[in-house]
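ingest -> validate -> predict -> emit
validate: passed (alphabet ok, no gaps, 71 aa)
predict: started
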Amino acid sequence: DMPNAAAVLLAHATKAPPPLRSVAPHVGPALAAVVDGCLAKGRDDRPSCGEALADALGQAFDDDARRAALA
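emit:
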């Protein structure tokens, strides 16, 4: 059964998406945390501005690269 438009909109507004690594386990944990944060429903749970997002992404790439080098 295909959900109706109202149900889809309600779910989009209220239900958290699955964690990125649950559907893409190959993504590094630090990058996944940033992406998951960007998809958070609460404004205070998302990056506050583009600069904060850019900083978080830079740190995530560094952390995941460091983690991969140690593996």
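The chain is about 65% helix and 0% strand.
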